[in-house]
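Q: What structure does this chain adopt?
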Amino acid sequence: MAHNVTVGIDGSVPSAAAAEWAAREAARRGLALRMIHVAGTEADALERDLGGGTALPAPVADLCDGIAAALPGLDVTCEVQPGHPAYTLAAASGRAELLVLGSRGLGGFTGLLIGSVGLRTAARSQCPVVLVRALTDRQDGGAAGDVVVGLESDRPSDAVLEFAFRQAADHGTGLRAVESRTTSHDAYATRAPVGQAEIRAAMAAAEQLRLEDALAPWREKFPQVRVEAEVCPWSPGRALVEASHGACLVVLGRRTPEHPLTGPRLGPVAQSVLHHAHAPVAVVPHP
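A:
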């Protein structure tokens, strides 16, 4: 059973931002906060213990103590686990409702999430994973911004839409649904003869209607959420990065492999958004 929000920490500034974001989310959901520091190999952890020191590095221990002091009503645990950060945190996601990681965005990850570790964790997480950037992300919980969700109206994911609508409802924000359409009426517009504007307009209206239809069941389930639907002529990655300005959260999906021998992966859209978005990014696994 998932009874916690889990966050990976290493004492760095990005992981501190992730821990603060995760703590607020756990408190709002009424869940425990599980803070995990991945120590490396079992030999590394054993060597520290035999040396008589604490298994938690001082910056990590200070972060845990600070979170517990700031939110005294929150059930906070802080633990050290051996192993590779990506695989250890992905395994921990099996018992979490949400996994939160820190990132610096715009080209990579720092600290605990060196190189591709953050991407590997997001690709393997069994629950939704949120990557929070330090400094540039909203540190007040993003209450003033909307939730942005990227979707394909011809095959919308219930898991992604439910997560996005619930986040918007719980945080009291609006929801902006963005779909990229770069090969239909815009491509036709470059070839259509002068005087065919009504055809181009009809094609655009049909795409907008298809997006509205995909959102209709969720509007009924979450009538309190103000919804904007936008069909964008840009590529999916660019559309979501542009929409992330001023957003409190960007939500996108990750398809889980159908075949057990197919390795987990993030597509180019998810990688682009994770590197360049101006808001926290949630990656939701779905069939």
